[in-house]
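hiii so um. not sure if this is the right channel but i have a protein structure encoded as tokens and i wanna go backwards to a sequence. like what aa goes where. can anyone help
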């Protein structure tokens, strides 16, 4: 049987990326080839995102484009997987009969069968990377037990399921053999790792076991503020290859809003957590995410958030306008803020954060930092420090001088200039392993 030539489009977050990479490794083991050009493929697979309206629209637009290629006879098969399919497969099946199959977020074997491939349990640890070869994500758990009222992910991804430690260590070892040096730990909620299958938090234990392997950087993302295992922060400061970095989405600070969001934490508890983290590890850089325009958010409550951001001074901050999602509990509330108001509030937050980021980054001027090169453009190396996660945080633009450098190399760099989201300087040496 002629093996398919597949174009896989992976949309959405890093958790979707890991699912796509697992699919590719399984399919390739059955002799399926992947192409980076849809027009060269006979089959298109789209791994969709269904989190917020914009992401849904993007997924649908890509599905329609694929269906158009099928109608034109360019491809013979179109398959849809992932979060949007998990939420709307019935409706989409009716509206898009040209699509050969819709699969949810936990139907890899069925999808593989549909493209004449076979699911092999023994290959579960293997992934074909979609990220640059020197960095990767390690998805330590799936699903979510929280019930943030603005969020539909628990409905899409199901209950929280930690990946067994031994499986994660096997997967990490394979990634390392592939040349991965930066490992980014992800889940919907990394704070709860281990509690479901080991009866207690195993996040610190996992970090220590990964740190004992030879990764240069291990980074912790998507930590939920409630039940966050603080012992992790001590381990972070003790282990050189665990980045002094924590992504801690908070969404808001006003107690009425936090209750209405069903976050389970108060402003006082949040401030105490941040102060404790910074006291335990003064070198740590904190990233957070805020949500503005939540139903009922008054100007006063928004001003309180602005003041909170001004006082806490996060090193990295992203901000999203509230999206009235029909599969989220908050859909029952009145969506009080207009799209313009939400956009204005988001702009105000990011304007404030820019002034904070500018001041924070000025502190790096004149310093020598270890950086990881993500790409080389002419005589400029584009790199990141341990305080910068891939795709979302700051970048360093560094002249390479006489050094012959390549992607994935660790170097030291002298920082000469800075702006809110960039550092500029010169590579001074190759960074020896510590
Ligand atoms: S922690 Fe909250 S926001 Fe994050 S996935 Fe779970 S329910 Fe959604």
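sure thing!! here u go:
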């Amino acid at each position: 049987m002629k093996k398919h030539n597949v174009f896989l489009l992976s949309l959405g977050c890093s958790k979707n990326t890991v699912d796509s990479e697992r699919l590719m490794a399984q399919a390739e083991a059955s002799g399926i080839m992947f192409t980076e050009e849809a027009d060269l493929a006979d089959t298109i697979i789209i791994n969709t995102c269904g989190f917020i309206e914009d992401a849904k629209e993007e997924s649908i637009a890509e599905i329609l484009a694929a269906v158009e290629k099928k109608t034109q006879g360019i491809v013979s098969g179109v398959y849809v997987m992932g979060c949007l399919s998990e939420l709307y497969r019935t409706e989409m099946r009716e509206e898009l009969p040209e699509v050969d199959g819709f699969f949810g977020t936990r139907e890899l074997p069925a999808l593989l069968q549909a493209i004449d491939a076979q699911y092999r349990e023994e290959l579960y640890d293997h992934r074909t990377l979609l990220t640059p070869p020197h960095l990767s994500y390690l998805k330590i758990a799936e699903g979510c037990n929280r019930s943030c009222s603005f969020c539909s992910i628990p409905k899409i991804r199901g209950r929280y399921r930690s990946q067994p430690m031994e499986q994660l260590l096997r997967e990490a070892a394979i990634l390392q053999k592939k040349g991965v040096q930066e490992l980014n730990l992800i889940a919907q909620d990394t704070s709860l790792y281990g509690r479901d299958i080991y009866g207690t938090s195993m996040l610190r234990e996992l970090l220590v076991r990964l740190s004992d392997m030879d990764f240069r950087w291990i980074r912790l993302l998507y930590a939920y503020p409630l039940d966050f295992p603080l012992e992790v922060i001590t381990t972070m400061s003790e282990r050189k290859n665990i980045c002094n970095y924590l992504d801690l989405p908070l969404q808001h600070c006003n107690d009425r809003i936090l209750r209405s969001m069903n976050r389970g934490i108060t402003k006082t508890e949040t401030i105490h957590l941040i102060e404790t983290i910074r006291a335990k590890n003064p070198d740590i850089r904190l990233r957070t995410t805020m949500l503005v325009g939540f139903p009922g958010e008054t100007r006063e409550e928004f001003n309180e958030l602005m003041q909170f951001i001004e006082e806490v001074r996060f090193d990295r901050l992203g901000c999203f306008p509230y999206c009235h999602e029909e599969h989220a509990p908050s859909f029952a509330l009145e969506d009080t803020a207009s799209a313009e108001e939400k956009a204005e509030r988001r702009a105000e937050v990011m304007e404030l954060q820019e002034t904070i980021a500018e001041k924070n980054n000025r502190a790096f001027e004149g310093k020598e930092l270890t950086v990881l090169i993500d790409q080389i453009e002419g005589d400029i190396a584009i790199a990141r420090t341990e305080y910068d996660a891939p795709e979302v945080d700051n970048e360093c633009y560094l002249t390479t001088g006489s050094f012959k450098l390549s992607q994935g190399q660790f170097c030291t760099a002298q920082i000469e200039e800075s702006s809110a989201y960039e550092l500029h300087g010169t590579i001074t040496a190759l960074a020896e392993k510590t």
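oh and The longest helix spans residues 339-362.
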